[in-house]
Design goal:
about 190 residues, alpha+beta, 5 helices, binds zinc ion
Length: about 190
């Protein structure tokens, strides 16, 4: 089932997600719905906040992107990215490695708004999977970028917060317009 993706201006996007202590049938149902929603929106990552839940859960799938490479290492060995997808990240913790790399980003909660964001080119990730089992890996390229974007969401941080002031100034009007639309929609519902 596809869910509504909330837009910038919804307070839930600013809420830090609580830890998931136990993976329940409800968690599994939400994960399935988040995959449906991400695919329907042609996204490569989706955080629980974007479908209205402030919890530490995100889904990622970079298989659809062919022009921006991703890398993956498991236990020090280079591993196949495609067969590692789709990815469920529960309570993820990211440790940045290496230098920041600038690259273009968008966000399903900011339709048609794109901007350069600097992020670590490589990261170490520790998380639990959909069975609640801990796993760890190292990611690079697009995969590292999308995971950092999603883990930010889980902490109430948005990609516009990571843009440099020039990029953000250039997008100011569009961002404010989106916020106003969202606020109008929220107050219309009450
Ligand atoms: Zn996003």
């Amino acid at each position: 089932m596809t869910l509504t993706v909330v837009k910038y201006g919804e307070p839930v996007l600013r809420r830090r997600g609580t830890r998931i202590e136990q993976v329940t049938p409800e968690t599994h149902a939400l994960i399935a719905d988040m995959f449906d929603t991400m695919q329907a929106s042609r996204g490569i990552g989706l955080a629980a906040q974007q479908v209205g839940h402030a919890i530490q859960l995100a889904v990622v799938d970079v298989r659809g992107v062919k022009d921006r490479p991703s890398s993956l290492w498991i236990d020090g060995q280079e591993a196949d990215v495609e067969s590692f997808m789709p990815l469920v990240l529960i309570n993820p913790v990211v440790t940045p490695r290496g230098k920041p790399v600038a690259g273009p980003e968008g966000c399903l909660s900011f339709p048609e708004i794109f901007g350069e964001v600097s992020r670590s080119g490589e990261i170490d990730v520790v998380a639990s999977n959909e069975r609640g089992d801990a796993f760890h890996f190292r990611a690079g390229g697009l995969l590292a970028r999308v995971i950092q974007h999603e883990v930010d969401h889980l902490n109430g941080i948005l990609f516009i917060d990571r843009m440099d002031s020039e990029t953000r100034t250039n997008l100011k009007e569009e961002i404010e317009e989106l916020m106003a639309e969202t606020k109008a929609r929220i107050s219309g519902k009450k």
